[in-house]
Amino acid sequence: MTHSTGTTLLTTVSSRTDMSGAIRAAAVLFVAVLTALAAQVSIPLPFTPVPFTLQPMIVLVGGAALGARLGMASQMIYLLAGIAGLPVFASSPVLPQGLLRLLGPTGGFLMAYPFAAFVAGWLGERGFDRRYLTSVIAMAAGLTLIFACGIAWFAWFASPAPVGLSNALQLALYPFVGIDILKILLAATVLPSVWTLTDRARG
């Protein structure tokens, strides 16, 4: 079955009901809440202020399912909740909640989430989430953006003091990239499977 450009999993599912607007709003909020919950599944590492979390998987899968605009909106809601002081960021013995978290060493990763969701959603709108290999490409594109922004911020802009590129790579890339690649290889199975079930349901 072919899909037109701009069609996402969310628009396909919600178009079958008269409450499509409410369903889309609820889906955006749901992905924002999932991102906050994923932040609580975190493992602090003794050698770096950057914790291991499940958030990138939620950001990328959610973005691809919602589409570029709504995927970005879901992550903006998540960040605004954190800025407002809600305990939605990963717990940390050294990093504060609230706006100061965005200024600290992990701020670049967090601020990249809306843009990574947009990229994954933009590719999802073009059918990248229908097949496993192209889904991997969409997830990898978003993950690359998260790492690029996170490393750049940690290296040159983070408060209280930037650490430089070499240290940023050692503290925030090398310990995580292998595990995160494995995560996107697993995450990339989700949406193609759901699309298959949706297409079967539609006949």
Please name the defining characteristics of this protein.
10 helices, Arp2/3 complex 21 kDa subunit ARPC3, two-stranded antiparallel ribbon, 203 residues, globular, mainly alpha
Oligomeric state, counting identical vs distinct chains: single chain
Return the CATH architecture.
Orthogonal Bundle
Strand line-up across the major sheet: 1-2
Order of helices and strands: HHEEHHHHHHHH
Q: Using DSSP, what is the number of strands?
A: 2
Helical percentage:
55-70%
Q: Count every helix, treating DSSP H or I runs of 4 or more residues as helices.
A: 10
Radius of gyration: 17 Å
CATH topology: Arp2/3 complex 21 kDa subunit ARPC3
Instruction: Output mean pLDDT.
Output: 92
Compute the separation of the termini in Å: 10 Å
Largest sheet descriptor: 2 strands, antiparallel
How many structurally independent domains?
A: 1
Structural class: mainly alpha
State the low-pLDDT regions, or none: none
Provide a short characterization of the protein structure.
This protein has 203 residues and is mainly alpha-helical. The protein has a single domain, classed as Orthogonal Bundle (Arp2/3 complex 21 kDa subunit ARPC3), CATH 1.10.1760.
